[in-house]
Amino acid sequence: MKDIDGRAVAKALREEVAAAAERLREGGTVPTLAVVVPTDDEGTAWYVRSIAKTAGKLGLDCRVVQLEEPGRDEIVAKLQELSADPEVHGVICQTPLPEGVSLAEVGWYISPFKDVDGANSESLGRLAQGRRTFAPATSAAVLELLRHEGVRLEGARAVVVGRSTVVGKPAALLLVNESATVTVCHSRTKELAAVCREADVLVAAVGRPRMIGAEFVKPGAVVIDVGTNPTPDGGLVGDVDYEAVAPLASAITPVPGGVGPVTTMLLLRNTVEAARLALEHP
Amino acid sequence: MKDIDGRAVAKALREEVAAAAERLREGGTVPTLAVVVPTDDEGTAWYVRSIAKTAGKLGLDCRVVQLEEPGRDEIVAKLQELSADPEVHGVICQTPLPEGVSLAEVGWYISPFKDVDGANSESLGRLAQGRRTFAPATSAAVLELLRHEGVRLEGARAVVVGRSTVVGKPAALLLVNESATVTVCHSRTKELAAVCREADVLVAAVGRPRMIGAEFVKPGAVVIDVGTNPTPDGGLVGDVDYEAVAPLASAITPVPGGVGPVTTMLLLRNTVEAARLALEHP
């Protein structure tokens, strides 16, 4: 078994992003990510601070736009304002959203050109069509880790556990586009462990701590754990029971230190890319 | 084994669509479908004539817009013009398209409000998000037939063979939204027959005549054949080897007389729905 070192993958990306950001700054453009935060959730605040800190180190500006108990219309207005602001290149909207507001709906108001976390239905549709677009960063991180490990996806059986719009479905579509044979599982799947054991590549994105045990994993499978479940002591634990699964897997992402750091880096890479595209196609 | 009678399903839909069209006409609105035909392909011409004929019988207008050797820009301009025309409620673009032009790209110029065959990436993204939208009519017909047969999809294993943007992927997304456990197979899938044998519901959308034989089908499975491959004698044959598979399946769609008639009817139902929405939200 081999740990897939997300921090090392992030480090390689970091240099690429920092270099691209520097080239843009030399040309007078400061690549800028705007993060709309419609919640006072502490976990979200922690995550946003970590994005802002990493952005700063890499030469990007990060505008954190905190909204106090906003309604749907206030969130939409802010996303539209930022989408129209020529000094902003990437726009993301954090969750959780207020009761009755869905990211799928408000995400539409993020310009597809600035939609660096793939929240707009237009972006998701282009992804499904196999066209160039910004994919949701977490799903893109899954693919980036697999690519970095040299995992052959063509013809491989991939099983994605979880069918959310932000992770499970886009990860499945990306894997289909890479010619894997892809199965999407979820809470209604029968004999889930048996279905998961069909996987050469198993992607866990359910949000249930340590749910995926040894009986879910075919010996030699590659396991990507998207889960980031908070523990009572303030730590994080994945959807995969790492201790039980690691001896079986040929490679596995730890939590923390797997998908997370790569996700943040891809958000920033997308922002730099959006800034570059804005210059080329004003 | 039971034949799933697509013509009977279409007949039930037909009465619903005709009644809705009549209500609209009584209110002074003639529900109108525009079909852009950018090819002189004989199969396409035949299909378009059959849509126009059925539309007429149901009280819809059908405008066939034949383009002679058009370039990409001419097709786009026509789709934009029809999207802006208040007397047109549904717009579809037939294939094959000229070399180098893709439906995924030109489909974007069909207004999502008139996109009755789900060609716009926005429509496909909304479908992936599980939101209300016009799905590609063929993929919607697969679900309509399963619903009509009372096939329980929640927790069922569904296998879709084919990953096209117009059928395979949207059918897979619709099945996931219905809580099936869905596997997408394609030309790179290894041991395709074995994977297909896992299916309680098998959807064949490959475009290869009689490719799916008995060894692909678990006894008792429901088989939906999306294939419409022309035969030398001017007939149609499916992707499924009907004679070999029918004795195994619990239910199967014949070709012709399965998915095809339902697809046409759903296009027309979507057009009437688009006309109704245009009245309600002008």
Distance between the termini of chain A: 48 Å
Helix content of chain A: 40-55%
Which homologous superfamily in CATH is the superfamily of the largest domain in chain A? NAD(P)-binding Rossmann-like Domain
Largest interface between protein chains, with number of residues from each side: A-B, 35 and 35 residues
CATH architecture classification of the largest domain in chain A: 3-Layer(aba) Sandwich
Structural class of the helix and strand makeup of chain A?
A: alpha/beta
What is the number of strand segments of chain A? 11
SS summary, helix count of chain A? 10
Query: What general outline of chain A do the C-alpha atoms trace?
Result: globular
The CATH C-level name of the largest domain in chain A is: Alpha Beta
Q: Look at the structure and give the mean pLDDT of chain A.
A: 97
What fraction of the residues of chain A are assigned to beta strands by DSSP? 5-15%
User: Could you spell the SSE succession of chain A in H and E letters?
Assistant: EHEHEHEHHHEHEHEEEEHEH
The protein's oligomeric status is homodimer
How can the largest sheet of chain A be summarized?
6 strands, parallel
Give the strand line-up of the largest sheet of chain A. 1-11-8-7-5-6
Radius of gyration of chain A: 19 Å
Contiguous low-pLDDT stretches of chain A (5 residues minimum) are none
Count of all domains of chain A:
2
CATH-defined topology of the largest domain in chain A: Rossmann fold
